[in-house]
Input
Amino acid sequence: MDFKSLSHEQIDEIITGKLVFDNAALSPILTAHLFIERVLDELISARLAHPKTLLGNRNMTFEFKVDLARALDALEERHVSAFKSLNSIRNKLSHDWDYSLSIPELNSLKINWTDIQNSALKTAKKSGAAEASRIAVIFLCWEALGLVKDTAG
Output
């Protein structure tokens, strides 16, 4: 968006349109990202003697947490790949004004999907990337939740 060449009214129209009508995929991606980051925090905390010393550092990136959880043997490589793909999608949606989530990207979020899960995604794809992203991240969050089932109270 070029603020110098657009009028106030044009900018208002663009931002209002984006807030009301665009990027329906953003919410499920951000929600899943936040949830999985909490799962990563839990997995890391469960393996450290003094987790607050490390996790209290707000500069630790999502990707670093994924790598740390893997180094602590809390994640399998299949989780690392899917979680980093989610992070990449989240970053694109968060930082690129004109980014549009593609259906093929959602396949990178799959972890050992069953036929029923693949069928659900196929059906959701017919409604577009936003609906497909909801289905893909629900299944990814379920997978992440399974990682902390033994640590939850």
